[in-house]
């Protein structure tokens, strides 16, 4: 009798432990799901003064917070951008803007200054230079590659009509430092922690590397 009672309480005990483990697992899953969900913020980032591609009156604005030194940003540009452009920018549904993020120190800063310089001197050529910068990122992204000389060389090959002297003067004088500092203030304001960060209007996309997630966020805004 006693023995039977003991084995029954063992069964009950085991069942409770199993139930607890299942419950913990479920809570964990829920938490993970929550972290992987797009976040709607109180506002969308302003794109004033930023490079913008797409129709001015497009109903949805997508902002990329990107760093020219970041390999994921390069990958995003190579893989997701062409699809986004084809599906939404070329069809007039989305206008796209880029904000500089300086997570990789002095080289990020110099690449940001160079891109803001091109935006100021040759605004029509901004996106050509933008792509040329990412194309120049070496396979080992930790390798040092952003210098005044490399910025000039990339700008020269991307933009045949480049005013070289003006480009170097503007770079050396850091004449676009206010634009770079403004971008840093946006990064802080929107608490950008990772690059690339993609915002679709006021929604921060949880998985920006997954094109389907970006697409779903845009389609939800278009409804
Ligand atoms: Ca900017």
From TrEMBL:
Protein name: DsbA family protein
Keyword Calcium part of the UniProt annotation: no
Record PROSITE patterns: THIOREDOXIN_2
Keyword terms, alphabetized: Disulfide bond, Oxidoreductase, Redox-active center, Signal
Organism annotation: Paenibacillus chungangensis
Pfam families: Thioredoxin_4
Chain ranges of the Thioredoxin domain: 30-223
Coiled coil feature spans: none
Protein family according to the UniProt entry: Belongs to the thioredoxin family. DsbA subfamily.
């Amino acid at each position: 009798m006693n023995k039977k009672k003991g084995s029954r309480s063992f069964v009950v005990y085991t069942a409770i432990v199993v139930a607890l483990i299942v419950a913990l697992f479920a809570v964990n899953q829920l938490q993970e799901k929550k972290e992987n969900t797009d976040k709607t913020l109180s506002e969308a980032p302003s794109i004033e003064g930023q490079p913008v591609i797409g129709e001015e009156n497009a109903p949805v604005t997508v902002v990329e917070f990107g760093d020219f030194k970041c390999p994921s940003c390069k990958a995003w540009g190579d893989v997701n951008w062409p699809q986004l452009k084809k599906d939404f920018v070329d069809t007039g549904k989305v206008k796209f803007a880029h904000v500089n993020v300086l997570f990789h120190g002095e080289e990020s800063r110099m690449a940001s200054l160079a891109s803001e310089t091109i935006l100021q001197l040759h605004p029509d050529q901004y996106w050509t230079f933008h792509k040329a910068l990412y194309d120049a990122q070496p396979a080992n992204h930790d390798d040092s590659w952003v210098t005044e000389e490399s910025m000039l060389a990339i700008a020269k090959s991307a933009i045949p009509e480049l005013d070289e002297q003006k480009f170097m003067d503007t770079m050396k004088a850091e004449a676009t430092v206010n634009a770079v500092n403004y971008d840093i203030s946006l990064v802080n304001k929107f608490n950008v922690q990772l690059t690339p960060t993609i915002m679709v209007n006021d929604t921060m996309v949880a998985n920006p590397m997954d094109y389907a997630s970006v697409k779903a966020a845009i389609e939800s805004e278009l409804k």
